[in-house]
Structures are given as C-alpha cells and as structure tokens.
Amino acid sequence: MTRVLIVEDEPQLRRALGINLHARRYDVVTVADGGGALRAAAANPPDLVILDLGLPDMDGVEVIHGLRGWTQVPIIILSARDGQDDKVDALDAGADDYLTKPFGMDELLARIRAALRRAQPNEDAPVITTETFTIDLAAKRVTRADVEVRLTPTEWHLLEVLTRYPGRLVTGKQLLQEVWGPTHGVETNYLRVYMAQLRRKLEAEPAHPRHLITEPGLGYRFEP
To answer: pTM for the whole thing?
Structure first.
C-alpha cells in the first residue's frame, strides 16, 4: 500500500483526510506538528507527504527543508496561506505542489495521483545531452561538466516539460498548468523568474541562451 504522511494540526481536518485516504486504500499516518512529521518520516519513510504550513512548533517550510535533506518524496502543501510569496517559498524549499484551503477532496486526490505518477522512475526515459549540460530524465538529474546541478522541484518540472517537446513551442499557459496546476494559466511572472533561474544554472551565457529559448508573447522552447 502507498504510505501517505499527513501533517495537519487541525484535528477535524486531520481526521477527515485520514478517513478519505484510508477509504481509498492508502496506508495513512497522521501527525499534528513538524517534529512529529520528521520523526514519523524517518521511522517509516512515506511515499507522499501532505503538509500544512501553519504548524504549532515550526513553520512547514522548515519541515520541507528537513525532509529534503535526505528524501525526494513528493510533498503536497495544504495551507490557508494563499499569497504568492508563500507559494514560491514552499515550492523553492522543495514542495512539489500547493493547494489552498478550502479545497475539494476530488482535486486533492487527483493531485496525489499526479504526484505519485511523477515520482515513479521511468527506466526508458532518455538522456539528453547538449553542448553545455546533460539531463538524465530517469534519474531526474542534471549535470554540467560532470558536476551535478541542484535544481528545485519546480525548476526540474519546468525543464522536464520543455524537454518533452524538443524544438517546439510550449505555450506559457501549458507550462503553468502542467507545473503549477490546472487553476493556473496567466501568472507569466512565475515563468520569467524560474526560466531566469534555470538559465543561470544551465546556460553558458544566460543573457544569450542557446537551449532555453523565449518566444516573446507565446511561450518557451527547448533546443537540444
């Protein structure tokens, strides 16, 4: 059974999440604070974490950092914080998805399924080699001059989507919906920020990119 760790300090919501996921044959572990989350994850590593940011003993972003020190388990944030800065901070820290409260259970379940699918290794995925860097899609690893480049989950997901369509335009709306979820589609500032970060990490000349190309007013293109 797929093990899901739920980190939520509100008792009623914690219980409701546990009941709904257990009914769908997930092995559920629930805790009420950050310290309990880190201990539970270390004792029995989960396959996915659902994490509230407003915990009584520490901020949820600290929990993300604690987990990311040793595991790449998918982390879905479930929080009442709906500010852009909160979302960016959580995603940059290593969260894979962000859902604001109140939320629909069907949407949460769909995001869980999507996160688990993305986490499955694809042994047939290719290795893409450019003049500057190499992308191992199966290992989810990027190297430059034989040195691994550390990407955040959001940066990796953005790069992964672009590499599915080599040489082809991927619209901004498509990128936003694939990386940030179906409710997004107009936040082009997200794309500008993350593409700039990817270019700084991967391009030989970030100001004159060779592989991560902007198509003004349309979207982006990956050139191998």
So the answer is: 0.66
